[in-house]
């Protein structure tokens, strides 16, 4: 058992996300850089296609901000939201700033988000468990071990757009985006009606 522990320790030591974080500093950075779109409590703004970020996993948030900054996400023509996010991510000075913002957001209570889609939640539950639950958790709570984000508090309009972006290649296009490429494959297995049902199911779960 010693070898895996050593390997895990080495991974954490050299991981790009293994940065000591200060949520208090992150709160100030969020207020200066992110609040206009994502809301004072990081509750999101569907009108701007800005997802709720409160309570999301810190490692996932760090990875997305880094990908926006480095052009691995949001760099393709047609991704208007991604094009807006890229300069915001670049405004964070370094990896420590990214980690601080992520730590602050992860510390916030989970928001309650309003539903905007009407689907068959019971059918969506079956689809979710067969296509999504293994990575994102049985209750949509996410799984850091798989770098799979929480889905129940992001907002259905944003989730719908992102699945469509994965399907069309606006996300998951970069060779370095390993998890995005996995999602691109999964998004291709779900049609529009099935997606609406899955979103209805996630809405029925509430904040988890």
TrEMBL record:
The keyword rRNA-binding does not apply. Its main location: periplasm. GO terms for molecular function: electron transfer activity; heme binding; iron ion binding. InterPro entries: Cyt_c-like_dom, Cyt_c-like_dom_sf, Cytochrome_c4-like, Cytochrome_c_Oxidase_Subunit. It comes from the Bacteria. Keywords: Electron transport, Heme, Iron, Metal-binding, Periplasm, Signal, Transport. It holds the Pfam family Cytochrom_C. Heme c 1 binds at residues 34, 37-38, 85. GO terms for cellular component: periplasmic space. It is found in: Periplasm. Residues 1-20 form the signal peptide. Heme c 2 binds at residues 132, 135-136, 183. Residues 21-109, 119-206 form the Cytochrome c domain. This is Cbb3-type cytochrome c oxidase subunit III.
């Amino acid at each position: 058992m010693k070898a895996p522990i050593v390997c895990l320790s080495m991974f954490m030591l050299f991981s790009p996300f293994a940065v000591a974080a200060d949520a208090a500093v992150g709160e100030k950075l969020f207020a200066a850089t992110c609040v206009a779109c994502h809301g004072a409590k990081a509750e999101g703004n569907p009108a701007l296609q800005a997802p709720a970020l409160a309570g999301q996993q810190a490692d996932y948030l760090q990875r997305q901000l880094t990908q926006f900054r480095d052009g691995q996400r949001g760099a393709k023509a047609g991704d208007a939201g991604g094009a807006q996010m890229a300069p915001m991510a670049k405004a964070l000075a370094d990896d420590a700033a990214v980690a601080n913002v992520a730590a602050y957001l992860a510390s916030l209570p989970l928001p309650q988000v309003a539903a905007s889609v009407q689907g068959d939640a019971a059918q969506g539950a079956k689809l979710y468990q067969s296509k999504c639950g293994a990575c994102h958790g049985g209750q949509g709570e996410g799984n850091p071990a798989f770098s799979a984000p929480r889905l129940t508090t992001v907002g259905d309009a944003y989730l719908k757009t992102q699945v469509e972006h994965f399907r069309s290649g606006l996300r998951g296009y970069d060779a370095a985006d390993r998890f995005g490429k996995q999602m691109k494959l999964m998004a291709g297995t779900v049609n529009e009606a099935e997606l609406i049902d899955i979103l209805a199911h996630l809405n029925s779960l509430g904040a988890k």
